[in-house]
Amino acid sequence: MKRIFASATLLTAIGTASSAAIIAEETFTYADGNLKGNGSAVDPGWGGSWGAIAEDAGTTSAQVIAGEVAAGTERQRVTRVLSTGQGADGTSVFIGLDYTFSGQNYTAFELHQGGTDDGQRTLRLASTGSNVLQESNRVATNTFLTFSGDEASVSHRYVIQIDFGVGAAADKVSLYQDGVEVVSGVEAAIDMSFDRVSLAAFGSTSSIGVTDNIVIATTFAEAVPEPGSLALMGLGGLLMIKRRRRS
């Protein structure tokens, strides 16, 4: 998957000649071992390395295996802060990632707004007995979509779109799976602003959703909705060039 993603990203870069729409990107190209401590503020879009939230630290960090986050430990959450928080009125943000639900209760990819407490959570793509996209804090939980059971063993490219409302208008959330919209513009009950992402595992066994190729961007295209389709787009472009040379 890493090789396909890299090719798709290159094709996108060639097509746009600019990556200005990308806010932050994480491909987990680290040596096998603990995720915690990897990355730095030098990396574009990030304010520092991956770290553990104090009360959810667990005994070890989530584990990088062959260039993706593929394992973790009971009760732990690792988080990485963005250099620039997202949530300005009237803007939109697209969060793309390759994700495989673990089937454990519970593992998640999450967006947070400040603090170190569960109550600050804004949005999560999670296995919580079932697979869900939901907003949650200590006041309320709203589930936008519940996935079918077989999703626990299937990897997909997800893109979460957040449209931040103006003034008192509610923020809206949409979700794409492999380029297909499965949740469309659902109004959120809580503020969707976020300034960090996290990966969590709170099951009874060592398990975390397999995660790779996180892209946070201001356009859908830059979030790479589906690497395979982008590769096909790039192939189509090459064929067009070849035809022009023949003519």
**What oligomeric state is this?**
single chain
Class inferred from helices and paired strands: mainly beta
Number of helices in the DSSP assignment: 2
Mean pLDDT: 79
Query: What are the low-pLDDT stretches, counting only 5+ consecutive residues below 50?
Result: 1-19, 227-247
Order of helices and strands: HEEEEEEEEEEEEEEEEH
Strand percentage: 35-45%
Q: Helical residue percent?
A: 10-25%
- Distance linking N and C termini: 36 Å
Q: What is the strand tally?
A: 16
Spatial arrangement of strands, main beta sheet: 3-6-15-8-9-10-11
Overall outline: globular
Radius of gyration from the alpha-carbon trace, in angstroms: 18 Å
The largest pleated sheet is described as: 7 strands, antiparallel
Q: Keyphrases for this structure?
A:
247 residues, mainly beta, seven-stranded antiparallel sheet, six-stranded antiparallel sheet, 2 helices, disordered C terminus
Task: Give an overview of the whole structure.
This protein is mainly beta. Helix content is 14%, strand content 41%. The protein has 2 helices and 16 strands. The protein has a 7-stranded antiparallel sheet with strand order 3-6-15-8-9-10-11, with no helix packed on it. A 6-stranded antiparallel sheet has the order 1-16-7-12-13-14, with no helix packed on it. A hairpin with a 4-residue loop joins strand 10 and strand 11.
